[in-house]
Write a structure and sequence with these properties.
It contains 12 helices and 14 strands. The chain has helices spanning 12-23, 59-63, 81-88, 90-101, 138-152, 176-183, 202-214, 233-244, 255-272, 280-286, 296-302, 310-323, and strands spanning 3-7, 27-32, 47-50, 68-71, 108-112, 159-163, 166-168, 186-190, 196-197, 199-201, 222-224, 231-232, 249-253, 290-291. Strands 3-2-1-4-5-6-11 form a 7-stranded parallel β-sheet, with helices on both faces. α5 (138-152) links the parallel β5 and β6. The protein is globular, with a radius of gyration of 19 Å.
Length: 327
């Protein structure tokens, strides 16, 4: 395998996948929209293919001559379920259908799913690949539909599915908000109840994608990938404040206050027609007792090992934010 197409290549996860592939000697073609910022791709000598997973006609030219595909394109914020579906479900189907039309077809395809497609943990037990999904948000429902689409192509194509929990690292703008709070001297917590979560550093996720491209055993399989530990929001906040060498004050936000604020965010979003960052659905996800999963199968079947424990990933993320003047 010499050339790999990465969809969503200009985004947070996709740009790290591009870098990981290029660093391991692959020729990389990046699928980007003409309106996309290429800031995250500036340091990598990557061939650009202009197109959109929502535009089926743009995909065959991007796929011409590639042996592998890593499908990272996804929508994490939207105004409606239909908007999510256009990219997370239909976009996945468009990419895989285009792969079927190629001669020769790509020999390996990795599709990124999400723990949100499976929903939060039940009874404190980490979610496994064979568990029955129960997504609780439009984002999760659309990712589950995309996940099912990818599974439906496994008889025609050599598809593997990677299922990450919360992903953090350089260039991320979601968990970055927590770093900003810590810098001004506060660390917010939703309610008094401890909440548990699995995490994966973005470079470990990118490396897992490369492993799935290369390992024959990964074909037709789905794998959760996480850093091997169950974290709490307090331990995550502690890793951030340790990396920043700060001792910010903990601020407990009552659940009813958080929910009321999320309703106002939704109202403002509908007025401005801009997707909300912390609307009612996202708040519902954040208030769940546990979002944990098990990466046991990828460790046992593919020999995949995490290289970034939480403290190391958070330190590197913080240094990147400082060096690029995000903080």
């Amino acid at each position: 395998m010499s050339k790999v197409l990465v969809t969503g290549a200009s985004g947070f996860i996709g740009s790290h996948v591009v870098e990981m592939l290029a660093g391991q000697g692959f020729s990389v073609r990046a699928l980007v929209r003409k309106s996309s910022s290429l800031a995250f791709l500036g340091q990598v000598g990557t061939e650009l293919a202009f197109g959109d997973v929502a535009d089926p006609a743009s995909l065959p030219p991007a796929l011409a001559g590639v042996q592998g595909v890593v499908h990272c394109a996804g929508l994490t914020k939207a105004l409606s379920l239909d908007q999510y579906r256009q990219i997370n479900r239909d976009g996945t189907e468009n990419v895989l259908r285009a792969c079927c039309s190629m001669q020769p077809r790509p020999s390996r395809i990795v599709v990124l799913s999400s723990l949100a497609a499976f929903g939060p943990s039940r009874d404190g037990r980490p979610v496994h690949e064979g568990d029955e999904p129960h997504p609780i948000s439009d984002y999760g429902r659309s990712k589950l539909e995309g996940h099912r689409v990818a599974e439906s192509f496994m008889k025609e194509l050599s598809v593997s599915l990677l299922i990450p929990p919360a992903v953090y690292g350089p260039r991320d703008r979601d968990i970055y908000t927590y770093f900003k709070f810590a810098k001004i001297g506060i660390v917010p917590f939703l309610g008094c109840r401890e909440r548990y979560l699995s995490l994966v550093y973005v470079k470990d996720l990118a490396r897992a994608a490369v492993v799935c491209l290369l390992e024959e055993e990964a074909v037709g399989r789905s794998y959760f990938v996480e850093d091997g530990e169950v974290h709490t929001w307090k331990s995550f906040a502690g890793a951030i404040t340790c990396a920043m060498a700060r001792k910010p004050a903990s601020v407990v936000v009552p659940r009813f206050v958080a929910r009321a604020a999320a309703v106002l965010v939704d109202v403002f979003s509908q007025i401005t027609r801009r997707p909300p960052l912390l609307g009612t659905q996202k708040m519902c996800e954040l208030l769940q007792p546990s979002w944990t999963c098990s990466g046991e199968h990828i460790r046992k079947e593919l020999g995949f090992q995490i290289q970034y424990p939480l403290w190391k990933g958070v330190e590197e993320t913080y240094r990147w934010y400082v060096e690029h003047r995000w903080l």
